[in-house]
Amino acid sequence: MNRGGADVPEDAEDAVRLVAGMLRRGESGEAMREHRRVTSWSASEAGLLSPAAHEERGTAVRIRRGGASLLVARAGDGPAALREAIREAARRGGTSPFLKSSARGAARVREATPEPRQDDELAAPIAAALAHALPDPRGVSLSLTVSLVSVSRAVVTPRAYLPCGAALRLEATGRVVRGGALRHVAFQSSLSLPGAFAALEIALKEALRPAPRVAAPSGEVDVVLSPSASAVFWHEAVGHPLEAEGADRASVLARVQGALVGPPRFELLDDPTRIDLPGAYLVDDEGVAARATALVKDGRVAGLLTDRRTAGADSNGHGRASDYRRPPRPRMSNLVVPPGDATLEELLERCGDGIHVREISGGSADPESGRFVLLVESADAIRKGRLSAPIARFALVGDVLSALRNVEDARGRDASPASGLAVCVKSGDPLPVGGAAPAMLVRGLEARGLK
Q1: What does the pLDDT average to over 37-59?
Q2: Is residue 56 pLDDT above 70, yes or no?
Q3: CATH number corresponding to 12-207
Q4: Which residues contact 340 (CB under 8 A, 6 or more apart)?
């Protein structure tokens, strides 16, 4: 399900002329074409229901002048939709667009998208994953939505037609109740389909683990985060504060560029070129080439994620839109932390008494203050450096500067993709994101029980 290229349609050259012709002196802008298909299955302990499929094609044009911007969206991703959107943008802006086209521009050739698969072919491995994870459904209540999402995008600038790529990803969201204990499921994978189905089975087995026997902790705790939980921690605590929002809303980390905030050897990248992770793309939604951006280097704040609004021509390719109807804004793609050389056993021993967090089901962050909240779905107690009994759901609370000061330098050997890092929603705009990080030890976080 890796993100690959897309074929260039026959009207590409004419589309570039149209976008160039719609812009006036002092303006910048682009057009975006999108094709999205979502096939979803509802699952319960009784099995799968018939799938529901939704398909949408759309085109948007965007014009920027100074601090003002204009976005016009139309259904359809062919030449007619682009011309209609440009006409409407011209009407609103009081200009006359250049709409002369070649004969070839009338062709309605679609972008290549991931090859569709028969729903029946997909239902069988999903049902198998459920059956293997839940061989005995007695005493279990399962409410799950499993979706295969196919997205293809292209950006048309005044100079070029730029395919963003085409991707498939498998998602699962819902809840499991067993023995009176509720657990949330948040899963996504951009692996090849066989690998994604295998990963889904593992995630479901984790959600169906026996109900915790130990009450939720309260107060200050030392925490060993699994690779998956570690990736979510970096996403919420560091990634969001380093999404550029402008000087008037500078985050706590953006205000300390160059400052030492973590272990001296620590590095954190946002890397949209990691095609094995869900947040990958070839160019961003403003037509800027994807490239890895260092957020933390040698323990110091090294950069921000920017788009054309916040950085102009110096954008580092992180202008992302949830769909063609929404404007781009600086957003994460795939946060990556290089592995260390410690084993999990060594991290547990260093921790002593604390908590081993397996999965984080969600979280939030306030970039300006640096405060964050992580909802721990699955965790075990650590007693004298060894794993003990499962514990009930709870929240981890902290502020990023204090948390980074308390991250131990030792990190796990395995920087594996995070299965629990699902679609990120910011200001109502959902986007696929990914992460790969090793296990790590953080001291002095605050634990709070959940009702």
Answers
A1: 92
A2: yes
A3: 3.30.2290.10
A4: 409, 410, 411, 412, 413, 438
* Contact of 153 with 388, CB cutoff 8 Å: no
Cβ–Cβ < 8 Å for 352, 383: no
Q: What is the 3-state secondary structure (H, E, C) of the chain?
A: CCCECCCCCCCHHHHHHHHHHHCCCCCEEEEEEEEEEEEEEEEECCEECCCEEEEEEEEEEEEEECCEEEEEEEECCCHHHHHHHHHHHHHHHCCCCCCCCCHHHHCCCCCCCCCCCCHHHHHHHHHHHHHHHCCCCCCEEEEEEEEEEEEEEEEECCCCEEEEEEEEEEEEEEEEEECCEEEEEEEEECCCHHHHHHHHHHHHHHHCCCCCCECCCCEEEEEEECHHHHHHHHHHHHHHHHECCCHHHCCCCHHHCCCECCCCCCCEEECCCCCCCCCCCCECCCCCECCCEEEEECCEECCCECCHHHHHHHCCCCEECCCCCCCCEECCCEEECCCCCECHHHHHHHHCCEEEEEEEEEEEEECCCCEEEEEEEEEEEEECCEEEEEECCEEEEEEHHHHHHCEEEEEECCCEECCCCCCEEECCEEECCEEEECCEEEEEEEEEECC
Model confidence at 272, pLDDT cuts 50, 70, 90, reads very high
Cα 43–44–49 angle (5° rounding)? 45
Residue 6: the pLDDT is 58
State residue 192's pLDDT score: 84
Backbone angles phi, psi at 445, to 5 degrees: -80, 160
Residues of the chain with CATH 3.30.2290.10: 12-207
Half-sphere exposure of 291 (CA within 13 A, CB side): 12
Nearest to residue 172, comparing CAs of 315, 12, 39, 365?
A: 39
Q: Which pLDDT tens digit goes with each residue over 160-211?
A: 999 998 888 898 989 988 877 788 888 888 888 898 899 899 888 888 877 6
- One-letter amino acid at 117 equals R
pLDDT tens-place string over residues 316-334 = 999 999 999 999 999 999 9
Selected residue with higher pLDDT from 2 and 271: 271
